[in-house]
Amino acid sequence: MAKVLVIGGNFAGLTAALETRRRLHDKSHDITVISMKDHFLYVPSLIWVPFKEREIDDIVVPIEPVLRRHGVNFINETALKIDPFQSKVTTDKGNVFDYDYLVIATGPDLDLSLPGSDPALKNNTYIGTPAGALEIRQRFFDLLDNPGPVVVGAAPRAGCIGASYEFLFNIEYHLRRRGVRQKSPVVWVTPEPYLGHFGMNGVFGGSTSLKLFMNSRKIDYRVNAAIASIDKEKVTLESGEVIESALTMIMPPFLGQEVVRNSPGLGNEKGFIPVLPTYQHRDFSNIFAAGVAVDVPPFGTTPIPVGVPKTGFPAETEARIVAENISRVINGNHDLTGKPFGEIPGVCVMDAGHKEVLIYANHFARPRQFSVVLPNPTYNTTKRFLEKYFLWKARTGLARLP
Ligand SMILES: Cc1cc2nc3c(=O)[nH]c(=O)nc-3n(C[C@H](O)[C@H](O)[C@H](O)COP(=O)(O)OP(=O)(O)OC[C@H]3O[C@@H](n4cnc5c(N)ncnc54)[C@H](O)[C@@H]3O)c2cc1C
């Protein structure tokens, strides 16, 4: 009997655990998920929380019943340390779990080294957590009473710039809809060399569409912009320009989670896991990683560094590769499957404030044969459908579905 331990229970962790279970026909193998959260969170819908279009309860699914139904154990604890030499994981409750195979699917932590970027200082806000989205809700409704300028964007090395664009278009839409847009100039600040670079060297038509959209919405923007600091009522660029702001949402770069940074020999200097195209650790063949936890170096250089967008589609793709490889190894087959991150298709629907843009690239990294951007100016129908679909998928545990 093999013991498979998965740390993290969201996109990558849930898929890896459920898919490993499904692929292992011998049900005596033990599969356990350890996650600090007892629920799946549909992160993409956080952008709607500040505007009361969603409550947090609308976008979470308790995972223990789903996992139990599929024959996977669940431990609601935080992993503090991984000993890759002894194959052990220690948690905040003092429990120690040993494993034959480990999957690290712990997602991102925030790199708050940019002066003033820590949301705890109240200069900046962060849309990527329930607490952050609710804090922005408070600040947004304060802004309606007391309108002022808004700055949205990304810090140098940030890799989740698409989410920041989505927040930008949503806040612009809601300021307009509530009649205070005239008194609230909106500025977009990005390290990208051009609009729509997204950390993946752009997609065909992306830059033009975004430029048209920014102009039609009267959003001022700075590209190739390195933010030097964020203060209470201003954002300062390294060029010396100071942009006034009453509400700031600057996406910070990501780090790997503390559990990886606290575990010598496991991650790189940023706490991400170096993997082979099989998503197997480069040094420990019984450790795999999927999702944001994986180290993906930037695709080329830009004047201001931009991180790679590690989105939901690659997180689930990697998790399926991991599940397949673990089940192969357990069954004595060491001929593993793999796909480098850059060759995974880039599939995304970007919300544009009750509108949307569908983005497809046959490879994340260039060279690619095909990429397209399709604006849907009528409504964000696909985005809303995907939310329902992924919440249904999490509730049913049908992780085999795309
Ligand atoms: C605002 C926003 C909007 C986005 N929109 C989109 C979108 O429209 N489309 C898209 O494809 N992607 C989108 N993304 C990116 C997407 O959310 C990520 O790609 C996805 O969440 C990555 O999945 P993951 O499983 O790797 O990490 P996560 O979803 O972050 O999950 C990590 C899990 O690990 C757990 N964990 C962490 N550390 C520990 C520990 N030490 N012990 C135990 N458990 C731990 C966490 O609690 C969590 O459950 C968006 C991101 C943001 C921030």
UniProtKB/TrEMBL annotation:
It comes from Ferrithrix thermotolerans DSM 19514. Transmembrane segments: none annotated. It comes from the Bacteria. The lineage of its organism: Bacteria, Bacillati, Actinomycetota, Acidimicrobiia, Acidimicrobiales. One of its GO terms (molecular function) is oxidoreductase activity. This is Sulfide:quinone oxidoreductase. Residues 3-291 form the FAD/NAD(P)-binding domain. Pfam families: Pyr_redox_2.
